[in-house]
Amino acid sequence: MLFPAVYVLFFLGTVGILAFARRRYAREVWLAGFFTTLLAVTLVGMPLLPVVDMHKFAQPSEEEETYYEIRMVDASGEELWFDDRSTPPTTGTRTSTVAGQMADEYTDDQRLEMGEFYLENAKEHRQAVESGDRSVTDRLQPPRYVDDRAWTAAELEGYESFEAIRIYERTVIYSDDNTAVESNEERPRVTIDPTDGTVTEHEESR
Amino acid sequence: MSAFVNYVADDGRASPLNLAVVRVLLGMYVIWRVLSLEWAAYGEWPDFHVDETIGFLHQDLFFALLPYQQWVVAALLVLFVVGYRTRWTGGLASLLLMHMLSVKATIYLAGTVESLFVCSYLILMFALFAEDDRLSVDALRRTGDRSLEELNAVLTDERNRVYRMRALKWGLLAVAIIYVGSAWGKALNGPLEIWLSGAELQRDILFNREIAGVERPMGMPLVENELLAWVGFVGTAVVQVSLFVAAVLGLSVTLPILGIIGFHVSVILTLGLYFIDMILVLSLFAAWDLAYRRLAADADDEATVVYDDRCHACARVLVPFAHLDGTDSVRFVPRSDAPAELADRDAALTLSDDGEISEGYEAFRRLIGKFRLLAPITWLMGVSPLRTVGTRAYDRVVPDRRRYRSDAPEPDSS
């Protein structure tokens, strides 16, 4: 209840203050409300939209860390890593979260729906990469948030059409002095094939 | 060093320039950003992955409106950039953008969204304190309400004015608090030991390399040298907190801001293109007025503008230039006080610069040229088709004496 209440109050309140900005104390009231919220949000580290914090890289890392990967599976069973540009606005960390939910939390129906979403978007993005057209408006874009690796037309050439997605769980272990990654092991978790409507869990590899 | 301004300590400046520069930069940057986001794509996401606390924002209607709202925001921001009805164009653009970003946040609240929220707060501050802005269409419109005597007083005043910039004061405070949060977040979540070694930063860089699949050669020295990583980790927290401390204590914010920009550049080199928008946000607090002073003509190179002090329209047009002229490069002289060789002319506007005298449209064009920042406008005004159109427009706004002597006995009412 708090979240919708603050949200609506912020917008209505601000419009009201703008209308009476010249009245005595109107702007002081707004500033007091805004900065109180901003301070609270900053202290607690949880956004209360539309007021946000920027706690970044705030979770301490462990000696061992897990993340999830989505891979495209083509008609002949070949696998290709997933380009996050297919599904705006996400980047790798968010893809990892969604992939983790697909592996552990979602029902099969949800897995199929999300799997199809990823598959269709990946196909669309693949087509755009392969056609190689970059419109004038594309060129005028600001750089993408996080310049992670991207599919290239040459790389895609070796793959048949995408038919399914497979989720991998990856475990990173750092060396004792943290100067290198000692190991980054992968374990297939689930294959989602929206084309056939099948979901296959790979529990045997656990 | 005063490359950046501590508006929290003192929101008064000798020139109104900074407020206008920030308004233009911020407005144009946000237009570019907003029109570049893929608003139409967000509604395609299945809706069961949403964070429940903000689930109320995940509505089909909200997503369906996003692609259209971006154009409304852009149109409002164009008006904001020129300073037209800033309170409402800026206010509504900011609120609408915040709503769009909140809807986007139901899918993913990443750095781009947060940086644009910060931009929205700044735009909202401009809306709240709209009357501080002296170099805007609004300011020009407001001169219409002022009497001829008041306008003449502004033009002939000695110009030791102080321009308040409350939007930048509260904007800087908000940015400073947000950066304190960046450092505080690590203290809040982490055990104390993370501050004693470089392990956190080493692991962050290594992990990022695995998940993004990109090698960052500049990250390797930090990964391989624990001391360097420790300096980077603790140094980040120090610069992030220093901005707030300096702002509140009334110290110079130049080093803190340069420090944070340095931190952002290191992040780009070692982790990737994160938070680039924040570099723009921080640069908004630069002392643009001091940079302009170096560029502008100074008092030694003073031009004299003789204007018709009975003509309201003439005085109105000149007022923004009087505000912009922080270096006393132009002296505005009412015709009634002017030497005979300049006063005894038909044109409502006469400019004498370095012995050269020009009148009417040409005088206006040269006046603009005195403000070197506006040199491109002067050049455009000299190109022949624009000169023809400009001369007509000028004649309409600022009729010369011959004209109103015969048509209008009361020039003051124009």
Automatic annotation (TrEMBL), chain A:
Domain of life, per UniProt, equals: Archaea
* Keywords, sorted A to Z: Membrane, Transmembrane, Transmembrane helix
Q: Where are the transmembrane segments?
A: 6-22, 29-49
Q: Does the keyword Transmembrane apply?
A: yes
| Region (Disordered) residue spans | 175-206
* Record protein name field: Uncharacterized protein
From TrEMBL, chain B:
Q: Keywords on this record?
A: Membrane, Transmembrane, Transmembrane helix
Taxonomy, superkingdom:
Archaea
User: Mind listing the GO molecular function terms for this protein?
Assistant: protein-disulfide reductase activity
Q: Name one Pfam family in it.
A: DCC1-like
Q: Where are the transmembrane segments?
A: 20-41, 61-84, 105-130, 227-251, 257-285
Ion transport among keywords = no
UniProt protein name: HTTM domain-containing protein
Record organism: Natronococcus amylolyticus DSM 10524
Lineage per the UniProt record: Archaea, Methanobacteriati, Methanobacteriota, Stenosarchaea group, Halobacteria
